[in-house]
Amino acid sequence: MLFQSKYDRARxxxxxxxxxxxxxxxxxxLADKLEKHDTFALIVSALLTxxxxxxxxxxxxxxxxxxxxxx
Length: 71
Description:
Blueprint: H1 4-18, H2 30-33, H3 38-70
């Protein structure tokens, strides 16, 4: 990494300031904390978020293509 020493010093200072408080971002075993159907729920929520936007984008692209070909 380009600024590895600065990064290491900043992480060390951060750990000193935080002490023993738990942090979610430093937890590398996040899979251990997921419950049984959390993965399915995450996939469904991602589909509900991205699928409508992707369909709207696709309709716009198809509409533009239809406009140029049909006219």
